[in-house]
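Appendix C reproduces, verbatim, an entry submitted by the partner laboratory led by Prof. M.T., so that reviewers can inspect both the input and the predicted structure.
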Amino acid sequence: MNITCPEGPGPIQHSDAGRVILGIFLVLVILLTLAGNFMVIASVYLFRQLQSVTNAFIVSLAAADALVAVLVMPFSLYQNMSTFTWHLGETMCLVATSFDVMFTTTSILHLMCMAVDRYLAICHPFLYNDRMTKPTVIGLLIMCWILPLFISFFPILNRWNILGIEEVDYCVNQAGSCVFLVNRAYAIICSAIAFYIPTVFMLVCNIKIYQTARKQVMQIRSLEIKTPGAMRASKNMRQETKAAKTIGIIVGVYSLCWFPFFIFNVVDPFIDYTIHPIPWSVAIWLGYINSTINPFLYYFFNRSFRTAFTKILMCSSCRMGDFDDNFNNTTMSAVSE
C-alpha cells in the first residue's frame, strides 16, 4: 500500500517512576473493580432478602462490570505500560476493542432496564407485577447481553468502522498500535445507540419518577391521619423512592464518567482524528472506573447492600446457611431501599 502518512504526535513516553506509579494505580483499579462487583453478586446470592427484580438487573450489571476488569482493563493497562504499542496481533486487537464496546453498551442497557423497572414500580404500581414477570426479566437480561453484539463484534470484526478511512487507519496503526478509529457514520450511530439516546431516555424516566413520587407522597401524607393503612403505603412508597434515587445516582455517575469519551468519539472524526492519545486514554479510563465506582454507590446509598457487604466481610468463616440468619437480625427492608 503506497500511502504517504503525515507525522503524528509520536509515541508517548513515561519515565520509569511514572510508569510504576501509573501501573500500580491501574492494577489497583482492576482489583477493586473485581472485588467490589464480586461483593455485589455474592450479596444477592447469599441473602434472600436482596433477591428482587431490580437486583436481578444489578447482579447482571455487576457481572458486566467484572468482565470489564477481566477482558477490557488489562489490555488498556498493557497499552499504557507499552507506550501505546501493540504486540498481540491484529485479531487480538479487534477482539479486545469489541469487548470494550460491548460491555459499555451492556452497562447502559442494564441501566435502562433498571430505570424502566423503577418507572413501573412508582408510576404504574398496579401494573408492576403483571409487567415485570420472571419471563419478562429474563428476556430483558438476554437483550442486554445480545444487542451489544450488533454494534461491537459484528461491525468491528468486519471492519465497518473504518469504511472510507482505511488510509487514516493504516497511518495510525502501521507502527504496531491498536487505536480504535471510527468513521463519521459509525461514530454518530453507535454513540447515539450506546450513550446519547439511552441517557436522554433515562433522564426522562427519572424526571417522571420523581414527579410521581413527590405527588404520591404528598397525597399519602394528607391521608395518614384519617386512614390507618396509609402509614404502610407511605413506608412502601418511601422504599420504592429510595430504590429509584439509588438508580438515579448510578445513572448520573455513569453519564458523567462516559460523557468525555463519547464527546471525543463523535468530535474526533470531524477534526481529522487530531485528539491527542493522552486525553483519549484519560477519557477511556474514566469510563472504565465507572465499573469500579458502582459497588461503592450501592454501599453508600443502599442500606440493604451496605448491611450485606458488612455481614459478608465480618462473617467470612460462616456457613452459607448463617448469612440469612445474620441478615434477618438487622432492621432493614426486604427489598432494595
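Residues 331-337 have pLDDT under 50 and may be disordered. Additional entries are available on request from the coordinating office.
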